């Protein structure tokens, strides 16, 4: 069964505005964030969704509810299903801290001073593993822990008996999660130097019967 996923990054929050890490912590949408959600709603108002998912964070739920309220093609509109599996990665001790200072703390012991520097020298997986090492409590998710949780989330979608081949699914997700998906499945086909914008849409096909490592085919990014 092949599903068409429309993944939206939630609207801008105050932590986004203040350049602070926001994984499992949560801050409200700004006025701009509500406009981001409306912009995504306009883009997707003509898509006939058979299912809708988001993380169980308020910022994702508010964005998803705004998108569904504007949708004109789904009849009936699917109920919004929330799951912690679709949360952003957990930053542990560094939740809510300044992003620049955090990535310096994670990368400096390895000769990398920024997030992009870590990615360029060691790959995106290292950003999670280095941060877990730098966390004095080691609560931040490792790359393996993160992907295990996310894969369980996609298993929830695959197990939805209301979905059929060719079905369209709304997924309101998070910036680093979308960027991680792109790095894992898109290769060099897209310019990943720019993070997905708040309210942007990334589309991909999800083969529910394939092993997860081969299940995702990207069709657009950061639209």
From TrEMBL:
Organism, scientific name: Bombiscardovia nodaiensis
Name under which the protein is recorded: Fructose 2,6-bisphosphatase
Record Pfam families: His_Phos_1 (PF00300)
Keyword Chaperone included in the entry's annotation: no
Keywords, alphabetical: Hydrolase
Top-rank lineage group of the source organism: Bacteria
Gene3D superfamilies to which the protein is assigned, alphabetical: Phosphoglycerate mutase-like
